Structure to design on (367 residues):
């Protein structure tokens, strides 16, 4: 049941990152990592493994697919850290392609050379000292461990040269997670060697499995959290931008209805930052147009807040323009956001939008 939960969570994360494939090398590598880890974890579910074996009519082929997917996910993770860290010394692309091709070929060859009884046993989960299943397991664990070890060194080595606190913490978690992945692979490899040498391990089989599951789960958790950690500030910023965009809607709606010419052409862009920027521009342009229908004399002294006073003269301007009255000569009232920094301007417009949403009676002339 726990494997099904872990696999389900990994598939959710992988599908969430799926649209990022092809955008950048980092995003493509990380999406590939999640997809392949989710695929590998799926075969830890007995029902999925049995269905796959029946579908391909090759006994234990689920173990081969699981190992290949897990190894390739480690390769994608290594590509991710190379794209993030950009080390001065790194293996050439041809060498990496040749290495992973040979590893996958070795896994496939040792799999088909293994004696796989036509029952629902798992010879690659418990090699019991048999040579070819042991060779398959050692090939998988060593390749996984070496890849994780290299990735761990790159992650941890990049911490000193990184300035952002969130990015440093993310690299630290990624380094610890890949280190645990390397320890997990080393543990599994040592157990295979002990069985080949007919040496009884000092820990029971149940203890071995518990340690392996703990190491693997901790490694996966730290890797996923470590990658997501640097994204938290950007995610929080996106959330605040979307919230501000929503809160500006009452003000924008009133301005856009009165001055439709200020509304920019809509484009299919999925960016809350761009949505917010466009909305602020349209509101400011509409305000500059609407104030031509009021004068400073229309805005009388009032105990109301400045945002409420500005909302009041904007309503008056909208009413006069809708009634077909001509624009008035100056002087016109100044806008409350004049000369403000972008962040202060946004806060001001949000307060003005709240005032437009909840009107308060004001002493304005109604010429």
């Amino acid at each position: 049941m726990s494997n099904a939960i872990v696999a389900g969570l990994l598939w959710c994360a992988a599908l969430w990152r799926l649209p990022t494939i092809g955008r950048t090398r980092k995003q493509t590598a990380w999406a590939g990592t999640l997809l392949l880890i989710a695929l590998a974890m799926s075969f830890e579910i007995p029902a999925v493994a049995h269905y796959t074996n029946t579908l391909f009519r090759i006994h234990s082929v689920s173990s081969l697919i699981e190992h290949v997917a897990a190894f390739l996910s480690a390769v994608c993770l290594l590509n991710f850290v190379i794209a993030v860290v950009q080390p001065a010394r790194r293996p050439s692309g041809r060498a990496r392609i040749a290495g992973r091709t040979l590893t996958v070929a070795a896994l496939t060859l040792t799999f088909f050379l293994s004696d796989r009884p036509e029952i629902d046993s798992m010879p690659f989960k418990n090699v019991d000292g048999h040579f070819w299943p042991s060779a398959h397991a050692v090939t998988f664990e060593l390749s996984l461990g070496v890849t994780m070890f290299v990735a761990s060194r790159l992650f941890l080595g990049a911490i000193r040269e990184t300035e952002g606190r969130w990015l440093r913490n993310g690299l630290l978690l990624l380094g610890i997670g890949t280190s645990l992945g390397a320890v997990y692979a080393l543990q599994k490899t040592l157990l295979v060697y002990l069985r080949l040498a007919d040496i009884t391990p000092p820990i029971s089989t149940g203890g071995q499995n518990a340690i392996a599951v703990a190491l693997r789960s901790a490694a996966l958790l730290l890797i996923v959290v470590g990658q997501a950690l640097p994204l938290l500030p950007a995610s929080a910023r996106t959330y605040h931008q979307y919230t501000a965009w929503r809160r500006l809607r009452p003000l924008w709606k009133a301005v856009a209805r009165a001055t439709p010419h200020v509304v920019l052409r809509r484009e299919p862009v999925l960016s809350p930052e761009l949505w917010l920027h466009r909305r602020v521009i349209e509101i400011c342009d509409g305000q500059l147009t609407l104030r031509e229908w009021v004068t400073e004399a229309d805005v009388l002294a009032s105990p109301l807040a400045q945002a409420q006073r500005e909302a009041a003269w904007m309503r008056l301007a909208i009413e006069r323009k809708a009634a077909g009255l001509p624009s008035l000569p100056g002087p016109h009232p100044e806008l409350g956001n004049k000369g403000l920094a972008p962040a202060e301007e946004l806060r001001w417009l949000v307060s003005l939008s709240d005032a437009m949403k909840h009107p308060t009676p004001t002493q304005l002339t109604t010429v």
